[in-house]
Structure formats: structure tokens, C-alpha cells
TrEMBL record, chain A:
Any one GO BP annotation for this protein: L-valine transmembrane transport
Listed name of the protein: Branched-chain amino acid ABC transporter permease
Lineage of origin: Bacteria, Pseudomonadati, Pseudomonadota, Gammaproteobacteria, Oceanospirillales
Family, similarity comment: Belongs to the AzlC family.
InterPro entries the UniProt entry points to: Brnchd-chn_aa_trnsp_permease
Record organism: Halomonas salipaludis
Automatic annotation (TrEMBL), chain B:
Parts of the chain that traverse the membrane: 6-23, 44-64, 84-102
Keywords (A to Z) from UniProt: Membrane, Transmembrane, Transmembrane helix
Name listed for the protein in its UniProt record: Branched-chain amino acid transporter
Key word Transmembrane helix present: yes
Length: 236, 104
């Protein structure tokens, strides 16, 4: 087993990801509109999409955006939402370990849910070219940026976003990500723990601590649950 | 600790997010090259991923207006039946807009 990264493989990955790009553009548009509505400038919105490149954590960051940006809560929620990347990266470790160090860590910067899923399938099939991860990541990044730009342009032209229901995009996006996966006791118990802990933190603990408290409570609840028979893939 | 909402403050906040996110992307491979991630850590991370979203959404459902609450209900309903996130979000937006149209 070996692995390599080259242009033809990257280009092939880009093409394989292309059919998904309209959806990514639509999500990017939703994020752009929500960010502008939350008071971020166009440049800040594009910078966040370009550098962070992780939808759910970006939407959650908007929720924390205010006259003061709570840095600890922002970092904690970003980490908690994106911690699934740790598992995704670990799953590809045997494959990527064959790449030169610089290529390996540059490729990981482009790892997102969809290109990871396709690359992981390639790896399991015995494919030696990691172009799917990199090319797919480039395609997703371009679509995400284009969508964000459209959202910034569109969102800047609306004066009363509440009238058109645009203020609920953030919450509805996060909810759709949450319930899009498998629903069973294994996930519901941690969620209930997270909701109760978040409510308690909202009532009694400092502002914005509810995100960290909820995430930890849910994580611990999941840890205490009996392990399920079938290992679960990292949720989207 | 918090940052003021100035261009510099916002930039630093975005940069911190980018850094943390990159650490999660590279961290799995970095850690695995030393010690493998065990099933307990995996369970914790998997449960935490959804829980943090729950913690963010809960106050919205609790303290939002009825437009926002019904929007979440609409998204939830569409997601359960269709599993299509974009459709769910569209249903939420339309519900909030519709509710506020009736109320105004």
C-alpha cells in the first residue's frame, strides 16, 4: 500500500466533486446572507469562509457574534463542532502517512465531510492516488466561496431580513445538520443532556458558557453510554 | 475573555477559528502518528459533535419569537420526512416569513 498526490488525480477529484457544488453554493449563499444580517462586513464574511471553511462552526460563530466577541466560547464551540475532523483524519492516517510531510498537512487543510467520505471510499478500495481528497476539497472550497460571495451581495441588498424570515437561516441550518444523520437513543440521550446542561448554564453560569457546558455534558453522556455494537462513521 | 467588535477584533476572532479548525483537521493524523485514538475518545467526540449544536439551538427555540420557533419546527418536520437540509432550511425561512406576514 502506498499513496501519492499528483495533478491528474487532483483534477479527477475536482471533477468527481463538481455535481455536488450547486448544493455547496446554496449553503454558502445562506451563510453569506446570515453573516451580513448579523453585522459582519462582506470582507469578514469572505475571510471566514475562506480560512475556516467549515459551515456548521461558521453558523454557530454568528450566534456568538455581538458587541463583544467571546473568544473562549468561540474557540470552544468551533473545536467541539469540528472535533469530528480528528476522527476523519485519523481514519485516513495509514493512507496519508505515505505522503511527504508537507503534502500531507497541506492536503488535510482541505478535508471536509464530502471529500473525506469519497476519499475514504477510495482508500478502502485500495486506490493509491489521494487526489480525491485534494481535488474534491478545492472544488468544495471554490463553491463555498462563490456561494458566500453571492450571499454577501444578496444579503447587502435587504433592509428588513426578519420580514423575509432570513434571521432564522442560522438556527434552521444547524438543526438540519443535527437531525440529518441517524436518530437513536445513542445520540438522543447526549442531546437531552446537552440541552438541559445548556439551559442550566444559561440560567446560572456566565453568558455564552452554555455552548461549552452543553457540548461537554453531551460528550460525557455519550462516553457513559454503553458502546454500540456497530461503529458509527463521523456524523456530518 | 472577549474581543471588541472592531475590524481587528473580528479579524483575530476569524483567525482563531481558522487555527482551531486547522488543528482539528491535522490533529487526527498528528495524534495517530504517536498514539491511536481509542473507542472511548471516539464516543466522546461523536456525542459532542451533535451536543454542541443542541446547546446552540436550545436558546433560539426558547427565547426566539414564534416565527423563529415555528421555523425550527418546520425544518425539523421536513428533515424527518425528506432528509434534505436545503429543503428543510427553505421550509423554515418560508414559515418564519409567513408567520410574520400574518402577524403584521
Amino acid at each position: 500500500m502506498s499513496a501519492r498526490l499528483d495533478w491528474p488525480g487532483t483534477l479527477k477529484g475536482l471533477k468527481r466533486m463538481a455535481p455536488l457544488s450547486p448544493f455547496v453554493i446554496a449553503f454558502g449563499l445562506a451563510f453569506g446572507v446570515a453573516a451580513i444580517q448579523r453585522g459582519l462586513s462582506g470582507l469578514e464574511t469572505l475571510l471566514m469562509s475562506g480560512l475556516v471553511f467549515a459551515g456548521a462552526s461558521q453558523f454557530a460563530a454568528l450566534e456568538l457574534w455581538g458587541p463583544q466577541i467571546p473568544l473562549v466560547a468561540l474557540i470552544a464551540s468551533t473545536f467541539a463542532i469540528n472535533a469530528r475532523h480528528l476522527l476523519m483524519g485519523a481514519a485516513l492516517y495509514p493512507w496519508l502517512s505515505h505522503l511527504p510531510r508537507r503534502q500531507r498537512y497541506a492536503s488535510l487543510g482541505l478535508m471536509s465531510d464530502s471529500n473525506w467520505a469519497m476519499a475514504a471510499a477510495d482508500y478502502r478500495r485500495g486506490e493509491t492516488n489521494v487526489g480525491m481528497l485534494v481535488g474534491g476539497g478545492i472544488a468544495l472550497w471554490l463553491a463555498w466561496m462563490l456561494g458566500t460571495l453571492l450571499g454577501v451581495v444578496f444579503g447587502s441588498g435587504i433592509s428588513e431580513p426578519e420580514r423575509f424570515g432570513l434571521d432564522v437561516i442560522m438556527g434552521c441550518f444547524l438543526l438540519s445538520m443535527l437531525v440529518g444523520g441517524k436518530l437513536d437513543l445513542g445520540v438522543l440521550v447526549p442531546w437531552v443532556a446537552a440541552a438541559l446542561a445548556a439551559l442550566a448554564a444559561l440560567a446560572w453560569l456566565p453568558e455564552n458558557s452554555h455552548v461549552i457546558v452543553g457540548a461537554l455534558a453531551g460528550g460525557i453522556a455519550g462516553l457513559l453510554m454503553p458502546p454500540r455494537s456497530k461503529p458509527k462513521e463521523a456524523s456530518p | 475573555m472577549s474581543l471588541p467588535l472592531t475590524p481587528l477584533g473580528a479579524f483575530l476572532a476569524i483567525l482563531s477559528m481558522a487555527l482551531v479548525t486547522y488543528l482539528t483537521r491535522s490533529g487526527g493524523v498528528l495524534v495517530m502518528s504517536r498514539i491511536p485514538i481509542g473507542p472511548r475518545v471516539e464516543r466522546f467526540i461523536n456525542a459532542m459533535a451533535g451536543s454542541v449544536l443542541v446547546a446552540v439551538i436550545t436558546p433560539m427555540a426558547l427565547y426566539g419569537d414564534w416565527g423563529a420557533r415555528l421555523a425550527l419546527v418546520a425544518t425539523f418536520g421536513v428533515m424527518l420526512t425528506s432528509r434534505k437540509p436545503l429543503l428543510g432550511i427553505a421550509a423554515g425561512i418560508a414559515t418564519a416569513a409567513g408567520w410574520r406576514l400574518i402577524q403584521s
